[in-house]
Specification:
215 residues, alpha/beta, Rossmann fold, 8-stranded mixed sheet
Length: 215
């Protein structure tokens, strides 16, 4: 991923901006994500940031590897997990495009509020697909910057500050992007807010024969 410097610089104020400016959809999103991973043995979270989602989903799943590619974010993530006393979470620095885990390692992957940020969306989704076991779930709640007039206006204002967004979704275009990359969706809900969140989850379609040989 590019834009790493932005996240290194903004790790300190990430929680405040997320909770106080864009936080209205968060409680419902955290509840839905927590239910989606309930009882799962091995969960991978990418783009964990400071661990707002991590702390919620750790309470319903058995074990989590929580990752971010910015070192400053991982430091904040580790601090939150330690302060919460969560012993089933391992925090690691990792790039979404080059995840250092075996194929089919995880029962679920949580990718919260990152799909609008990745420069190469198909490559990111295929990297997540690789580490999911067949039938494993992808949970990808995503800010939908293009959903309303207000969210479009705020998104353009945020972009002036250097925010590294690479695409503006509506819920329907988020659904289409996932479906075009082999995800069979089982849930798609719009969570209202200043910038709404499209809560989406599903499973990747079965890989064609010989898929591994062409990677």
């Amino acid at each position: 991923m590019s834009d790493k410097g932005y996240w290194e610089r903004h790790a300190r104020n990430y929680d405040a901006s997320l909770r106080w400016v864009l936080g209205r959809p968060l409680p419902r999103m955290l509840h839905l994500a927590s239910e989606a991973v309930r009882g799962r043995e091995k969960v991978l979270e990418v783009a964990s940031g400071t661990g707002i989602v991590t702390a919620a989903i750790a309470r319903t799943s058995r074990s989590i590897i929580a990752t971010d590619y910015a070192a400053a974010m991982v430091e904040s993530l580790e601090r939150r997990i330690q302060e919460a006393g969560l012993e089933n979470v391992t925090c690691e620095q990792a790039d979404i495009y080059a995840l250092p885990y075996p194929e089919g390692e995880f029962d679920a992957v949580v990718a919260a509020n990152v799909l609008h940020l990745v420069p190469d969306l198909p490559a990111a989704l295929q990297a997540l697909r690789r580490v999911l076991r067949p039938g494993g779930s992808i949970i990808a709640p995503t800010f939908c910057h293009d959903e309303t007039w207000a969210s479009r206006s705020l998104s353009r204002l945020i972009a002036v500050s250097g925010f590294p967004g690479h695409r503006r979704f509506k819920l329907r275009t988020l659904q289409r992007a996932l479906e075009d990359n082999g995800v069979h969706l089982n849930q798609a809900v719009l969570l209202p807010g200043l910038i709404p969140v499209g809560y989406v989850s599903g499973v990747f379609e079965p890989r064609p024969e010989g898929w591994e040989r062409h990677q």
